[in-house]
């Protein structure tokens, strides 16, 4: 039978501890909040008053309910005040020696049947449990920041943990309105092992200087559709916490992708810890604030938009681009028939080439046979199956019809390949990737190649900005920014599944309920297609040589038989 838990102690009243106090008090439990000094205990009380005060101001909580929540909590600097609680949750800084010291002391304070839980985000729960007199009553309850908002609680068990205890804690999490995911004790558990590795990878991309801070965040928020960009999220979590989790993950796995990036280490050493210190990747109004001071003024790039644009190609994307560009006031010359006269394209400053499956014949998939069979791409008749009607040949003819002042914008790889050998070397090529819309908008990534002028890149960006897209510019690398962030992250999730640590469903729950993802990694892979993810990873792996980019064998299997991960 599940045990009765009605009184809870929370040790450590920083951001997470105070948030956890709020969760329990709002669910009607009696809470004892403990921190090391009366001032720190008072600060914890202040956090709860401020947070519930904001809820009252927004009309989400009545003043009476706020008073009831505050009335359920007592604040103290004495661990001894925890002697009667049913459950203690420790949320002190992530240092094993501090946690072991506290758990050791609790042994002599709390009742023998009290549960001892840790909110550790990555440390070994087994090591914490082993230092206590009753390791079978030690369990992990890992909340996510902001704890009052995010639904996930990772319930971490060790070899010592009682099954009955696991059931009780899972039920308790459900009573709190949370979504528990029960997993064993492994570095980073589910969510941090995936999330923090993704953040480390993003920081490493930022370190290269290939993309700006805002553009990198737009890739995560608009391109992938996550609630925040990776640098903004790192600042929210705290760069010291991100680094600590990287350290733990790296020590456990020796995966270079988990190692803390040099820039992250330097920022932590310099005391730039993110929102909590007032400065991280962004500069904030004051310590603890989320208001960014050094955000650039809203871009007015769209004033440099090109007013006459050609769109060559067929399919949904071509239709969408023609519509949006026309609505933005551009005069659009649309060419959607390989037999059409190409003369109207001559002299246009910007021409978009849109491939897509509908534009090529079924056999060659839009020109891929030219590449795969090693045929001379300059030979428009080389594509025997579609006799020059696939983009490979059609776009080649278009390229030859263009004026040398035209900026050519291939929107996919087949279009870009089709240009090889046809273009006047003077013509500038600015490839783009148009993403599916997400809840934050529709992203277009603009690739900066070495020989493209800043003017050409800016002009392409401005044209898409004016047409209502969100744009970012980065160096032209495999996967650009969005796929370079997303695909390795998805691959890590597949590796985790393949390692037997958690189910695909639990991993998806962890990332949606713990990090606010609109859908979990496996739902994302099923939507994109395992083959596309595996192919994208292979391209990146070929370009960088990074071992972590090798597609997981399980991903390759799913790709080979076209089997979804879910359902
Ligand atoms: N405390 C209480 N409530 C908060 C809050 C806080 N700190 N921050 C936001 N909220 C509430 C707001 O009041 C608002 O509530 P209402 O809609 O009822 O008014 C709601 O949350 C949404 O807030 P906003 O509209 O201001 O902003 P948003 O929609 O952008 O959401 C967010 C903010 C919830 C933080 C969202 O951006 C998000 O989910 N981001 C991802 C955060 C994430 O990944 N966290 C996990 C980090 S990893 C971790 O924590 C584990 C670890 O061990 C390191």
TrEMBL record:
Pfam families: 3HCDH, 3HCDH_N. Residues 188-284, 479-559 form the 3-hydroxyacyl-CoA dehydrogenase C-terminal domain. One of its GO terms (biological process) is fatty acid beta-oxidation. The keyword Signal does not apply. Residues 7-185 form the 3-hydroxyacyl-CoA dehydrogenase NAD binding domain. Gene3D superfamilies: N-(1-d-carboxylethyl)-l-norvaline Dehydrogenase, domain 2, NAD(P)-binding Rossmann-like Domain. Pathway: Lipid metabolism; butanoate metabolism. Keywords: Oxidoreductase. One of its GO terms (molecular function) is 3-hydroxybutyryl-CoA dehydrogenase activity. The keyword Oxidoreductase applies. Belongs to the 3-hydroxyacyl-CoA dehydrogenase family. This is 3-hydroxyacyl-CoA dehydrogenase. It comes from Luteipulveratus halotolerans.
């Amino acid at each position: 039978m599940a045990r009765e838990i009605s009184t809870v102690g929370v040790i450590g009243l920083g951001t997470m501890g105070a948030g956890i106090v709020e969760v329990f008090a709002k669910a009607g439990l009696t809470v004892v909040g403990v921190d090391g000094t009366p001032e720190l205990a008072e600060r914890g009380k202040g956090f709860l008053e401020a947070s519930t005060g904001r809820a009252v101001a927004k009309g989400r909580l009545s003043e009476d309910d706020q008073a009831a929540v505050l009335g359920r909590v007592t604040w103290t600097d004495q661990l001894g005040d925890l002697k009667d609680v049913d459950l203690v949750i420790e949320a002190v800084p992530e240092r094993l020696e501090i946690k072991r010291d506290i758990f050791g002391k609790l042994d002599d304070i709390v009742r023998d049947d009290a549960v001892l839980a840790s909110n550790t985000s990555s440390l070994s729960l087994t090591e914490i449990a082993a230092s206590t007199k009753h390791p079978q009553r030690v369990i992990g309850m890992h909340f996510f920041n902001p704890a009052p908002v995010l639904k996930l609680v990772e319930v971490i068990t060790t070899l010592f943990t009682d099954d009955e205890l696991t059931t009780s804690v899972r039920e308790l999490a459900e009573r709190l309105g949370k979504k528990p995911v029960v997993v064993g004790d492994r570095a980073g558990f589910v969510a941090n092992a995936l999330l923090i590795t993704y953040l480390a990878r993003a920081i490493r991309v930022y370190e290269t200087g290939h993309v700006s801070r805002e553009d990198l965040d737009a890739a995560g928020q608009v391109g992938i559709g996550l609630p925040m960009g990776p640098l903004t999220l790192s600042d929210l979590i705290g760069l010291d916490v991100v680094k600590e989790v990287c350290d733990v993950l790296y020590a456990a796995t020796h995966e270079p992708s988990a190692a803390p990036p040099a820039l992250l280490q330097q920022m932590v050493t310099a005391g730039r810890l993110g929102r909590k210190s007032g400065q991280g990747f962004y500069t904030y109004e004051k310590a603890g604030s989320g208001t960014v001071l050094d955000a650039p003024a809203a871009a007015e790039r769209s004033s440099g938009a090109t007013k006459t644009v050609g769109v060559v190609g067929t399919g949904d994307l071509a239709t969408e681009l023609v519509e949006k560009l026309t609505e933005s006031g551009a005069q659009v010359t649309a060419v959607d028939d390989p037999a059409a006269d190409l003369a109207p394209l001559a002299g246009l400053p910007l021409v978009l080439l849109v491939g897509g499956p509908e534009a090529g014949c079924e056999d060659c998939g839009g020109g891929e046979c030219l590449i795969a069979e090693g045929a001379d791409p300059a030979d428009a008749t080389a594509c025997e199956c579609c006799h020059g009607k696939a983009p490979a040949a059609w776009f080649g003819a278009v390229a030859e019809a263009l004026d040398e002042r035209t900026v050519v914008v291939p929107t996919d790889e087949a279009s870009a390949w089709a240009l090889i050998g046809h273009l006047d070397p003077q013509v500038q090529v600015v490839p783009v990737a148009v993403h599916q819309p997400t809840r934050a908008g529709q992203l277009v990534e603009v690739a900066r190649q070495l020989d493209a002028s800043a003017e050409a890149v800016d002009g392409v960006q401005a044209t898409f900005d004016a047409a209502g897209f969100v744009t970012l510019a980065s160096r032209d690398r495999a996967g650009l920014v969005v796929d370079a962030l997303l695909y390795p992250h998805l691959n890590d999730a597949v590796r985790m599944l393949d390692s037997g640590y958690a189910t695909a469903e639990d991993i998806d729950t962890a990332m949606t309920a713990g990090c606010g993802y609109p859908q979990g990694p496996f739902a994302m892979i099923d939507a994109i297609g395992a083959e596309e993810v595996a192919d994208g990873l292979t391209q990146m792996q070929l370009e960088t040589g990074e071992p972590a980019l090798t597609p997981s064998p399980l991903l390759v299997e799913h790709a080979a038989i076209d089997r979804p991960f879910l359902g």
